[in-house]
From TrEMBL:
It comes from Urochloa decumbens. SUPFAM superfamilies: MFS general substrate transporter. Pfam families: Sugar_tr (PF00083). Coiled coil: none annotated. Residues 24-479 form the Major facilitator superfamily (MFS) profile domain. It is found in: Membrane. Keywords: Membrane, Phosphate transport, Symport, Transmembrane, Transmembrane helix, Transport. The chain crosses the membrane at residues 20-45, 65-85, 97-117, 123-141, 162-187, 199-218, 282-307, 332-353, 360-379, 391-414, 426-445, 457-474. Gene3D superfamilies: MFS general substrate transporter like domains. Belongs to the major facilitator superfamily. Phosphate:H(+) symporter (TC 2.A.1.9) family. This is H(+)/Pi cotransporter. PANTHER family: SOLUTE CARRIER FAMILY 22 MEMBER (PTHR24064). One of its GO terms (biological process) is phosphate ion transport.
Length: 512
């Protein structure tokens, strides 16, 4: 045990990977499952919404601004959600705010599907955007809380893999969106689109409430993390009791050590000391997240348009069945999720604690750049020819693979590890908010430059290069305790130096 480290935190660091780790992973992961479903399902039903409310003489004419608003409004809500709920997670506790975000997600998922207006027609889209904004706020709040809770529960040897596993549930949520969209479209295939298109998109969006509601009970049964209870709430007895039960070991409370922490001056977010210790870290995590989300969300949300342009998907012509188009879109969406998205997450889970976070992030940014250049450079002369459309899909899938075996996952992991416990959720929320700002920029930029796909793709390469440069400012965190990474052990007075070895006798720990 390192000098100055509390026994309860040492017990968490060296505990073998056991049932409670997997339970916490599933509970936290279902939040990301719901997040991904709600974020990406909208791209599958936008054409149905257009068919219902923007059909003019048999053809869909949905304005670019309206289409962009439908796609981006949840991302706009995620920005204040990450900032506010991230801050509340440090002020009021991870567990308490965790339940609030989940309730908000369930309610707004249902409300999105029940968006109605007395003035039937385009006003329904305005009501939908209102509820999806608040849905985004709940999703945004789930990001810092889920990542922080998992990082504070995990042992130091497998912490990266456990957080990555939580985030990998996003891939399953993406896959579920495709499957639900396909099933719903197939169910309405033989019906009249003019009267049933309205039911189909509502069912798809409302289904997002199901996984969120199923996990509420288990989220509320989880104890508060020991790191919050000790390092922020200063309750040694509660932390020792909770973790003794969770780890099935005997951990003695350390009231005097916690009192010593209370007497120490602890710097705040806007202090010179925070700027000196973590200012560069906050800047680097924020810029890296912004850079990767510009690429990741623009490619994912506008995948139907890109694939239509290269001939992988048909366009919705006058008289076409919109449900048939929806099935075609969801088939491609599901194939990309299975062949590119999920393998990327699994590769990160397997290797992040071996290779390290920083190396994987640099590798991911680099390979994304190479893949996008291969898409952009020969785009007009090569990829738009029908015979090359499947090769284009493979290269596109490689881009998504290296986004997930790379910065899309590591940008979530690193902010959950490098900041002190009292500011961890707040700083993660700040970095994540920059990411969602990047996603908003990517969506609008792509929407208004969609007639110039190669130019837009080269712009994404520039974002990746910025991500590589700022990644070089980040420390490697694999194999270290959170307190060591954040400098919290150094802040403590080393009063336990003389009896560090004796203190370990109070913790019965099963070796990793």
């Amino acid at each position: 045990m390192a000098p100055g480290q509390l026994r309860v935190l040492y017990a968490l660091d060296v505990a073998r990977t056991q049932l409670y780790h997997f339970t916490a992973t599933v509970i936290a992961g279902m939040g990301f499952f719901t997040d991904a479903y709600d974020f990406f399902a909208i791209s599958l039903v936008t054409d149905l919404i257009g068919y219902k409310y923007y059909l003019d003489q048999g053809e869909v004419h949905i304005p670019r601004g309206v289409s962009a608003a439908i796609s981006v409004i949840a991302l706009c809500g995620a920005v204040p959600g990450q900032l506010v709920f991230g801050w509340l997670g440090d002020k009021m506790g991870r567990k308490r705010i965790y339940g609030v975000t989940l309730i908000l997600m369930v309610f707004t998922s249902l409300a999105s599907g029940l968006s109605f207006s007395k003035r039937v027609g385009k006003n329904v889209v305005a009501v939908l955007c209102f509820f999806r904004f608040w849905l985004g706020a709940g999703i945004g709040g789930d990001y810092p809380l889920s990542a922080t809770i998992m990082s504070e529960y995990a042992n130091k040897r497998r912490r990266g893999a456990l957080i990555a596993t939580v985030f990998a549930m996003q891939g399953f949520g993406n896959l579920a969106a495709g499957i639900v969209g396909m099933v719903v479209a197939a169910a309405f295939m033989k019906s009249d689109p003019s009267s049933h298109a309205d039911f189909a998109w509502r069912i798809v969006l409302m289904f997002g409430a199901v996984p969120a509601s199923l996990t509420y009970y288990w989220r509320m049964k989880m104890p508060e993390t020991a790191r919050y209870t000790v390092l922020v709430a200063k309750d040694a007895k509660k932390a020792a009791s909770d973790m003794s039960s969770v780890l099935n070991v005997n951990i003695a409370p350390e009231d005097e050590a916690v009192n010593q922490l209370t007497r120490q001056g602890q710097y705040g977010l806007f202090s010179a000391q925070f700027l000196r210790r973590h200012g560069v870290h906050l800047l680097a995590t924020s810029v890296c997240w912004l850079a990767v989300d510009i690429t990741f969300y623009s490619l994912n949300l506008f995948m139907p348009y890109i694939f239509t342009h290269v001939g992988l998907l048909p366009t919705l012509e006058k008289g076409d069945n919109p449900f048939k188009l929806m099935i075609d879109i969801t088939k491609v969406h599901t194939t990309i999720a299975i062949c590119g998205t999920l393998p990327g997450y699994f590769a990160t889970v397997a290797l992040v604690d071996r290779i390290g976070r920083v190396r994987i992030q640099i590798l991911g940014f680099t390979m994304m750049s190479v893949s996008i250049i291969c898409l952009a450079a020969p785009y007009d002369e090569h990829w738009t020819k029908p015979k090359n459309k499947y090769a284009f899909a493979v290269m596109y899938g490689m881009t998504i693979f290296f986004a997930n075996f790379g910065p899309n996952t590591t940008t979530l992991i690193i902010p959950a590890e490098i900041f002190p416990a009292r500011l961890r959720s707040t700083c993660h929320g700040i970095a994540g908010a920059f990411g969602k700002i990047g996603a908003i920029v990517g969506v609008f930029a792509f929407r208004y430059t969609e007639d110039h796909v190669p130019r837009t793709l080269f712009g994404l390469v520039g974002c990746n290069i910025v991500g590589i440069l700022f990644t070089l400012l980040l420390p490697e965190t694999k194999g270290k305790s959170l307190e060591e990474i954040a400098g919290e052990i150094e802040e403590q007075q080393p009063q336990q130096h003389a009896d560090a070895a004796a203190s370990e006798e109070h913790v019965q720990v099963v070796p990793v």
